[in-house]
Structure prediction request, 429 residues.
Amino acid sequence: MQPERMADIRNGSVFRGSVGNDTVISTAAGFQFGKMKPTDWQINNASTSHKSLTEGRRADQVKHESQTAAKTAEKTSYLTQSDVTKKLVQRMQDTEQWKSELLRAIQDLIAETDLLLSQKRRLEKALAASEVPLHITTECLKNRERRQNSDSVEDNVEIALFKEAEIINSVQDLLNSTIEEANIQVRNNRAAKHILEMDWSDKLEALSIDTRSGSLSNASTDAHYKPAATAFQNTQSEPQMWLIYSHDNIGDAERERDVSCNLRHVIDSILSDLSRDMRNQADIVKVLFEDRIDQVHESIVELTNQLQQVLSNIAAQEKNIRDLRRAIKDKELPMKVVQSRLDNRSRRPGLENCQDLAQFRMVEEVATIGESIDTLVEKLQQAEESLKSLTDTRMELYNLQYRSASAEPNRSTFLLRLLPECELRSARH
Prediction:
């Protein structure tokens, strides 16, 4: 090799080959510049291999975590959807229960309103029927106006007739006012029923919607994205308000039903009392007519005997009342004893405080004494009511006893009192 070419090679000059190609060859310093050492090469290879392994493991981890997350999401979604479905079922059960309660309240109110309307018809019938005795009493007074001279006196019969007319007029006023009260209560019942029906209708529609919602599943074709549905509406009620609303509606309806029921009982009492008052007064007038016509002194004696019997019964009933009160008083000490025993034994320590036979027997004794007291109190009430009735009867007998027995041979007037009593009694039914 020529020395100049060697110099070119060492100096990094261009080597021109025999075929005309030029090859640039670096100098020794040029070979060393920009190249890594074998140790660096090995480190680089090791780093690349480590990175590959690390990324592989990370990829496996991500894959595993992704699969786990997917399974967890699927399970969570399933459990959440199942729980929501259960909540919907529970809600539907609650709604169905309230709907049933509302329906029961509606049916009860309808039945009660029908009963009240029946009572109202009885009032109207009684009002119409009261015209019959009023007409008879008026005719009796007109006939007695035709009496002559000393027979034209303001006797007990005439007073009784005027009183009878007054009673009948009062009866008619009371019947009219009670009919109006019944009309008002019927309107109240119907208003309460309307509220119940609206609540029932809303629950029926809500139940239909919840049933349709509860039947939705992942396989349903009518399930769609409704992102706006997740927002709470200002018009939505709270669960407690939902419960209170139906509870209050039923409570209001039951109160109206109770008022209506009480009014029916009052109507029963009114019809019974008014019929009794009218019948009693009519009987008094009838007796007075008989006394005046037939001079029934024997009936005065009989009334006196009856009064004595009533007085005897009153005395016996008063003694019975005293005995009953004493018997009730006598039950106080046994009750105190057994309750004190129970109270003392309740302080027994530990397992000694046992529900033994003595405990049960004492509890039974309390119940037995209580039942005895209740029975005696009931009998006392009955006795007092009987005494009151006897006292009322005694007063009636006193009144009848001192009626004038003077003759009143006005038979045409008396015959008016003998009209078919079925017409007079129609006020009761």
Summary: The CA atoms of residues 34 and 307 lie 147 Å apart. The beta strands are 14-16, 22-24.
